Each structure stands twice: as structure tokens, then as C-alpha cells.
């Protein structure tokens, strides 16, 4: 599996590259947001470790940019430990948040956990006996396969599935998921819906998440 690191501190990056390559991962390290984003636009990757403070930008902005075209799992790496920073990072689409200094073993464990959710192991249980759509461990499973949703993505899909086939507006989705209703945040619902669809496309079920133009979104099991 391929892991991308965007981190401008060589000592930290060297440690990450070493522990990940020792475990068999293909690792690509970039020191700037621009170089890392350019690579991700042109090459597939399985996970991104992203520093918040970069010489040419902010990791939060990079995350927002990536979520426009990619559902890659993102682990934020930062020296900032304030709760508000962790909350913001998770709400804009990150999957995990690690503060410096960190334990290399813990980071490796977190990487493996995210990849395990993205690529669940095959089981001998017949998937046709399980519900097609199933909520479990704050993620949604389609025919037994985990979508790998973030906390907010899970809440959005759960609300839409629960209210099938009702059309919910952006404001209603914000209220139902208890997401912050800051000025302009309502439109960020579109980005989260897009990210969910990207993950659903892996299992050819994205058409179930529908848009009612001018009104909002609704769920209809078409897969």
C-alpha cells in the first residue's frame, strides 16, 4: 500500500518513513503542500499523513482541497493540541489526529487501523445473508464491506438512510448531525456528500445517495 507524507521537518519525516517502510509500505515524502497535492492529483494512494503547519500553507486548507476530489484517509500530524483544532480537523474531513511528539509504534498502529477500515479482510460468512446496508462501529457497511466514513460522514449518511426517502435540506442535515452552523458552513455539506459518494463508488452504490436540485439530498437504495 502507498502512503504519502506531507511534513516539512526532516527528523519527523525520516522517522515516519523508516517505520512505515520497515512494515512494507511504499512511502512518498513531500516537504510542501503544493508538491504533495500535485502528487495526489496524479497518483493513487491509500493514506495521507498531513502536517498542519507547512511552509506554503495550512494543513486544514490542504485537507479541504483534497476532499474536493479524493476520499483518501487523512491523519493530521501537528504540535497543536487544542481541542478546537482537533474538532475542526475532524469536521473538515480528516480521519485521525496525532500530536507531536508522538510514539512511532502508536502512529504505525493508527495507520494500520485506518487501512484496515478501508480494506476489511475477507471473511467466510456469506455476505448475502447480512443486511445490504448496516451501521456498525460508527461506519456504514455495504454488503459487509466498510465504507470507511469519517465521524461527520457517518452521521450524514445515517440521517439520510434513517429518513428514506425524505429529502433533507442542508440546514436540516446540519441540525440533525449537530455540525457547526457557522456562516458559509452549510455549503460544506456538499463537500461531505461528495466525499461519501467517492467512497460508495468503490462498491458501485453511489447512485443511492441522490440530489434533489434546489432542495437537498435523499437516500434511495438503487444498488
From TrEMBL:
* PROSITE patterns referenced in this protein's UniProt entry, alphabetically: OMPR_PHOB (PS51755), RESPONSE_REGULATORY (PS50110)
Can you list the GO cellular component terms from the UniProt entry?
Answer: cytosol; protein-DNA complex
User: Under which name does UniProt file this protein?
Assistant: Two-component system, OmpR family, catabolic regulation response regulator CreB
SMART domains annotated for this entry? REC, Trans_reg_C
Native species: Pseudoalteromonas rubra
Protein's cellular compartments: Cytoplasm
Residues annotated as DNA-binding are 123-221
Q: What is this protein's gene name?
A: creB
- Primary location: cytoplasm
Amino acid at each position: 500500500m502507498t502512503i504519502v507524507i506531507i511534513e516539512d521537518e526532516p527528523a519527523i519525516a525520516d522517522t515516519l518513513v523508516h517505520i512505515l517502510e520497515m512494515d512494507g509500505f511504499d512511502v512518498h515524502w513531500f516537504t510542501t503542500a503544493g508538491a504533495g497535492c500535485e502528487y495526489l492529483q496524479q497518483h493513487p494512494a491509500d493514506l495521507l499523513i498531513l502536517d498542519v503547519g507547512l511552509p506554503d500553507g495550512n494543513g486544514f486548507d490542504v485537507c479541504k482541497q483534497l476532499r474536493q476530489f479524493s476520499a483518501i484517509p487523512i491523519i493530521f500530524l501537528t504540535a497543536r493540541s487544542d481541542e478546537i483544532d482537533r474538532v475542526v480537523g475532524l469536521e473538515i474531513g480528516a480521519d485521525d489526529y496525532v500530536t507531536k511528539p508522538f510514539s512511532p509504534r502508536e502512529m504505525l498502529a493508527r495507520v494500520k487501523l485506518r487501512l484496515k477500515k478501508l480494506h476489511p479482510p475477507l471473511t467466510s460468512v456469506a455476505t448475502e445473508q447480512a443486511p445490504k446496508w448496516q451501521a456498525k462501529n460508527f461506519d456504514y457497511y455495504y454488503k459487509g464491506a466498510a465504507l470507511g466514513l469519517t465521524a461527520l460522514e457517518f452521521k450524514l449518511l445515517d440521517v439520510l438512510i434513517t429518513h428514506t426517502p425524505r429529502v433533507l435540506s442542508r440546514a436540516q442535515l446540519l441540525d440533525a448531525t449537530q455540525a457547526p452552523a457557522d456562516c458559509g458552513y452549510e455549503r460544506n455539506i456538499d463537500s461531505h456528500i461528495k466525499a461519501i459518494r467517492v467512497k460508495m463508488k468503490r462498491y458501485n452504490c453511489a447512485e443511492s445517495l441522490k440530489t434533489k436540485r434546489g432542495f437537498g439530498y435523499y437516500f434511495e437504495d438503487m444498488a
